[in-house]
Batch of 3 targets.
Target 1
Amino acid sequence: MISSTQNATCSVEPGTTEDLGVILRILGYTRTSFAVKGGGHASNQGFSSTKGVQIAMYRFPEVTYDARTKTVTIGTGLIWDEVYAALEPYNVNVVGGRVTGVGVASFTLGGGYSWKTNQYGLTLLVDTVQAFELVLPNGTVTTVTATSNTDSFFGLKGGFNNFVEQGVVTTFVLKTVPQTQVWGGLITYTTSMLPPARFRTGQPGVSALIFYDAPTPLTKKTSPLARSYLLFSRPLPTKLLDYAVYLIPCLLRVTQWTHWNLSLTKLYALQYYGQSMAQKSAVLISYSVEPLLPSLFSHNTIPTAYPPIRSKGLLPLNLYFAWTDPLSDDAFQKAIGNSTVILKARAVANGQDIANAAVYGNYATIHTLVDDIYKGNLPRLRSIKAVYDPDNVMGLTGGYKF
C-alpha cells in the first residue's frame, strides 16, 4: 500500500481506554499531527499513516462471543481473519471483510461490503453494529448505541477515517449470523473462451469470484456453478477463513477508486491502461464489478452517515491499480482518477442515473471531496463533530474532513 511508505516519527500502542484518552489529550494540547491505525490496510496516505505520531490499536484484540445475546465484542486492533477464527467454533460469523488482512475498524466505520451483503446488507447499515465504545478527544470514554445517543450513532455509522471525527472507537458489539461451510473459488475466462477478455494484457482473462454458503450444499445437479472449473486449491466446502485467506493479492503499491455499475464490454480502459502503464512498473490493472442486489441499502431504516441516499442500491466498481516503482505514484494516482471520470461520463451517457451518486469512502482516493461521499448528510455531520470535538483534535489527523 502507498500508505505503508509513510514513516511515523514515533508510534504508541495504548493498552486501555484510559491510556488512549491521555494520548489524545496530549496530542490535542501540543497540536501534534497523528494517525490511528487499526488493521492498516488503507491505501491513502494520512488515513492510517502519518509523519507524526501513529496510534496503533494492536492492544485492543478482544473477541468475546455471547451465546445468550448472539453478539460478539471485537477490538479495533483486529483484522477480520482473527475474528473469523475466534467465531469458527461457535458456527457463527459477522458481516465482515472478504479478503485476508483487512482491518475491522475502518471497514466497519466506512460501510462494509461483505460476502453476506446481499443477504444482510452493509456492515454498518444492518443491525450488525449494536454498540461502539468511543474515546472522545477530551479523554472521556463512552458507549454509543442507537438509543443512548442518536447523533453520535448516526455519525459513527459511515464516519470512516480516523475512527470518525468524534474520537477513536476501541470496540464494536456486533450481531452474529449463522455460518455454514463455504463453496467457491476463482473462475478465469481466457480470450479463447470469452472475447471481452481481450481487454486484459499480460495474462489475458476475466476472472469471477464465486461465494456460496447456504445451508443446502451446492451440487452439480442443483447449480451450474458447481460444474464450473475453479482455480482453487480445493474446490470443496471449506471454512470462511480459509476462503478469505486464499483471495489475498500480494502487491507492493496499490490504490483504489470507487464507481458504479457499468458494462465494460465496449470500454477498452483495461487495454489502454494495461499498455500505457506497463512501462511504469504496473503489475496489475483490475476493474472489479461487484454484483449486488438492489435491496442492499434497505435492510435497516436507522439513519446513517453513509449512504446519504438509500433509494437506489449502487453497485461499486473497484478500480485496483498495483505497481512497484515509488517514482510512479503520481502517474498511477492520476491514471486512476482520469479513468473514473471517463467511466462515470460514459455511464451517464448510457442513461444511468448516477450523476449525483455518492462515492463509497472505503474505495475512494485521497483526492475525493467529502461532499461527494456524504452529500446532504454533511451539515449534520459537521454539527456532530462540533459537539464532540470542539477543539478539532481529530483535525490533526489526515483523511476526509467534515
Target 2
Amino acid sequence: METLVHKGPGHMRKTIPVVVIAALTLAGCATIRNSRANPANWFGRSYSAPVNTTAGTANPLIPERLLSSKKEVVDRRDPVARIDTLDIEKVPGGAIIRVSATAAYQGSFQVGLVPQSVDGPVDGVAQYTLKAYLPVTRGGLLPVGTDASRKVVAATRLSDIELSGVSKIEVVGGQNALSKTR
C-alpha cells in the first residue's frame, strides 16, 4: 500500500518556475540556431559550385607570375672526394641512408645526398651524389689536413613508397661509388 506524503505548499512554488524556465530555454534554441550569436553561422552557409576540369589549368590560388618565374635551381656544390661507408638502416615507414666520406679539403660544408634522377629510381637503382660546398679562403689555397679532419657525414630518409621500386641504392663521390642491394 502506498503512502502519500504531503510535501507542503512551497514545493509547488519551486517546481512551476523551473518548468517555465526550461520551456523558455528550449523554445529559445530555435531562434539561436539562426542568429549571429551561434558560431556555426559566422561564415555563412556553404554552397556547391561546379569544378572546372579542363586539362592544363593552373591552380587559381597561385599567381601566374609566380608560376612563370620558376627557374631551375642549379646545385653548385662539388662531389665529395671519397665515399668511405654506406649504411642503410630500416626505420618504421622507410629507411635512412647514412654516408660517411672524406672531403678533399678541410671545412667543406652543407654536405648532402643529391638524387641523380628527379623522377625517382631508374631501372630499380636510386643513385645519389654526395655533394658539399668547398671552403672559401683569402689566398686561394684550401687546407688539406689529415683524413680525420676532412670527414663528413650526410643522411637522408626514404619512405616505403619511395623505396617500393628500388632494388639498389648507389652513392657516388668524386673518386668512387658505393652501393647496396636489397
Target 3
Amino acid sequence: MGLGPCKSQLGPRGPDKWALRSRALPGRGILGSLRLGCFVSLVSLSHGGLPFLVSRTPPPPRHLRSPPHRSSHDAAGAFQVMPVVVVVVVAVMRGDGGGLKGARGRQGRGAAVAGRWRRVAVILLALAYAASMLVVFLGGGAGGVAVAGALRQRGAPAPAGSVYRSHLVLDRLLPEMRASSASRPHPLMTPQNKKSGKRWAPCITKKLRRSELPPSNGFLIIEANGGLNQQRISICDAVAVASLLNATLVTPAFHLNSVWRDSSKFGDIFDEDHFIGSLRKYIRVVKELPEDAFVNFDHNISMIPNMRTKAFSSESYYLQKVLPKLLELGSVLLFFLPLMLHHILATKVPPNIQALRCFANYEALRFSEPIRMLGTNMVDRMIKMSSLTGGKYISVHLRFEEDMLAFSCCIYDGGWRESIEMENARERSWRGKFHRPGRVINPEANRRNGKCPLTPLEVGMMLKGMGFDNTTSLYVASGKIYNAEKYMTPLRQLFPLLQTKDTLASPEELAQFKTGSTGLHGLSAERRVCDDSRKQLSSFSDRHRRYLYGGNAKTIKPDKRKLVALFDNPNIRWDRFKRQMQDIHRHSESKGFGVRKPNGSISIYTLPMPDCMCQRAEP
C-alpha cells in the first residue's frame, strides 16, 4: 500500500509545496495515499478535471482555452462550471514527525486506524476521479472530442453568424414589425411568376420499356431504414435493382429506427396493392416470401444470407458482383440497404432503369387509403381557414426536434440545461459516435455554414420580413418540437392563424395512426397538406411539388449562411432586414425551376427533370 521512496515533484510549484516524501513510520503508505487523494482532488477541481488522466486527446494550450466565465452563447457550447471548493478536514492523531499516535507499540489499534485511513484514501481518490469525469463531461472535451470554442483566441470576438442571437434581434425589431404596414399586395395574392416557352409535365410511361418478363432469378428482400424520405428512396432504388437483376421483389420491411421508433409496416404507410399492381408490367413484386422458398431456411429469417453493397454502385457492379451471388444462393438474397439509400445506386444509370426509378417514386408509391383520407380532410379544413387570403396558405416543415438539434451539435440559448439534454440525446440515439477519438465538434462553424436547424422564431422573422403579415394562414408540419412552449410562442404571436395536425385533425382521427412514439403516419398526412400549399418553406424534399406544378417547386429555400449573419446582428434595422428577406424570396422564386446537371450529380429524388418529366409547349 505504500508509495515507496517517492521524492519526485508533482506540478510546477516545487518540492516544498507538492512533493510527497515517504516517512520511516508505520502507516506511511496510508498517509501518503491520503495526501495523494487530497492532492488529486484539489488539482482535479482547480484545473477543471483530469484531462491528463481520462482524455484520449491532450487539453488545448492554456492560451487557447475558453475564458473562465462563458455565457450560454459561447462558441464552445459547454456551460461554465463554477469553481468548486472542497475542504477536507483531517483530524490527525498526535505523534512525532507527523506519524499516527499509537502506531508504535499497539499493533492492533494501529491496524484498525490504518484500515480507516485506507478507506478514506480510497474514497478521496474515487471522489477525485468522479469529479474530474463530471467536469470533463460537462465541459465537452473528453473522449476524443475537441470543442471548437477552444480553437478561438481567448477573449477574441466570435465571427459574424457564429452565435445564436435571433431572440435579441426579434426584441429589437418587434416594435417596428408591429408598426409597419404592408405597402404591397399580399405575397399569396400576387400572380405566380411563370417562365415563358415550354413547361415541364410528367411523361414517365413514355420512357419505360415494356416487355414480357423472363423467369425470375430469385427473391430480393430489403430493409428500409431512416425516416419517411429515406424509406421512400430505398424502396425506389430496390425496384431499380430488382429490375437490373431480374429478381422478384418482396415488399420492403421497415427497420425500427433508434430515432423514429416507429413500428409501422409497409402496408400501414403505403398502398401495397397499388404498388404491386402498378409495377407488374416491369418487375415482379410479392407481399411475402413464398412458403416453398422460406422452407429452405427452416422458416428462420436469420438463416437467409445477407449482402451489403457499396455506395454509389454502378450497373456493372450489380451485374458482376451481386447477380452471381443471387444465382449461387438459389432463390433468396437478403439485401440490407444502408441509411443513405439514395447512394446505394449511382445517380447515373441507363435511361430505362432511371425511368423505372421515377415511376416507382412518383406513380407506384402512394400513401395508404386512411392516410390519404386524413390528408384530404386536413387540406379542406386548411383552405376554409384561409379565407383572408383566398384559400391560399403557407406550409412550413420545422425540423426542430430534439434529435435534429442533438445531431447538428449546434448551440442555442438554453444554457447548461440544453447542453445536458443534447448530450443525453446524442448518447441515447448514437451511443458514442460524437465522442470518438479525433471527432471535432465546432458549433460556431456549423452555424456559420448554415447547418443549424432554424428555430420557429427565426422562421417567423424570415416570413415576416418577406411580407407575410398576421393575416397569413400558416401550417406547421413537425415532430415534437424541442422546448415547444419557449420556441413556438414567438411564432404564434407573429402568425396567430397558425395550424398544426393537432388543431386540424381530431384526437380520434390521429389516434388510429399512433403506432410509434413519433409515428410516420401523421408525417405522411402532413406531406399532403404541404404539397397543396401555395408556398412552402420546408426541408421536405420538394420533388413532388416540382412534379405537381410543372417543374416549379414553389418552395422558399433560403441561403442559411446569409441568414445567420442577419440573425447575429442585434443592431440591424427593420428596413434593412426586410429588404434582405425580400431579396431571398425573389431569389427562391427565380430558382423555382431547375434542370438536373448533365453529370448526374443531383438525384431524381431532388430534381425530377429531365429524367421523369418532358417539356411541352405552353397552350
